[in-house]
Amino acid sequence: MKIIPYEKFKIESNLSVAEVLWRIKQRTGKKEFFNFSPSHPFSGHVNEREFEITKNISYRNSFLPVIEGKVEQISTGTRVTISMRLHFAVMCFMFIWFSGVSVGCIAVLTHLDRFSMPMLIPFGMLVFGVALVSGGFWFEASKQKVMLIELITKN
User: Fold this and answer.
1) What's the pLDDT at 1?
2) Where are the domains of the chain?
3) How far apart (Å, rounded) are the C-alpha atoms in residues 46 and 97?
4) Alpha-helix runs per DSSP H in the chain
5) What is the pLDDT of residues 85-101, one digit of tens each?
6) The predicted structure's pLDDT at residue 58
7) Can you name the residues that pair with 74 across neighbouring β-strands?
8) With b meaning 16 or more CB within 10 Å and e meaning fewer, what string describes 56-66?
């Protein structure tokens, strides 16, 4: 499992650009703030050559990947370049979290002469934060990658 919650990959298909975008658009609904029973597997927007979508899930996961894709014509059909990343607000929050915890870890390391068990808390918070982000992101990213490959390449 990778630690950094970002993945970029390419999918090639023998379908036309219009067909690929149509397939994605058919499975993408409008992004709504509260949608308790979505009718599509994804929500977001699809433009003429690119899209930005997220998977609709029935549970809470702040680390759900945002899927950005660019569709281009190649000689054998279509190439879709996809990147999966965290939502910008989540990235900002986790940057602040990891910055604060890192300062705590550095403070503990500078005072090792007075060691006590509570001094391990910042290190535990650092490990917990990395596990939380990585687990939440990669659990969904692996499933969504398979869904997108099937959606784009299946004839």
Assistant:
1) 62
2) 7-89+126-153
3) 33
4) 17-26, 88-110, 121-153
5) 999 999 999 999 999 99
6) 83
7) 77
8) beeeeeebbbb
This prediction has a pTM of 0.87
- Residue 152: how many other CB atoms lie within 10 Å: 22
Residue 75 in tokens: 């000689």
Pairing mode, if any, of strands 50-55 and 42-46?
antiparallel
Sheet holding 7-13, edge to edge: 7-13, 77-85, 66-74, 50-55, 42-46, 28-29
Q: For residue 57, which amino acid is it? A: I
Q: Two tokens at 7? A: 């993945």
Four-CA torsion 71, 74, 76, 78, nearest 10 degrees: 0
Residues of the chain whose pLDDT is less than 50? none
Q: Nearest to residue 4, comparing CAs of 67, 63, 78?
A: 63
User: Which CATH code for domain 7-89+126-153?
Assistant: 3.30.530
Quick one: which of 142, 146, 145 has its CA closest to 1?
A: 142
The C-alpha atoms of residue 154 and residue 13 are separated, in whole angstroms, by 8
Q: Which two tokens stand for residue 81?
A: 């370049």
Read off the DSSP letter of residue 59: S
pLDDT of 33 reads 66
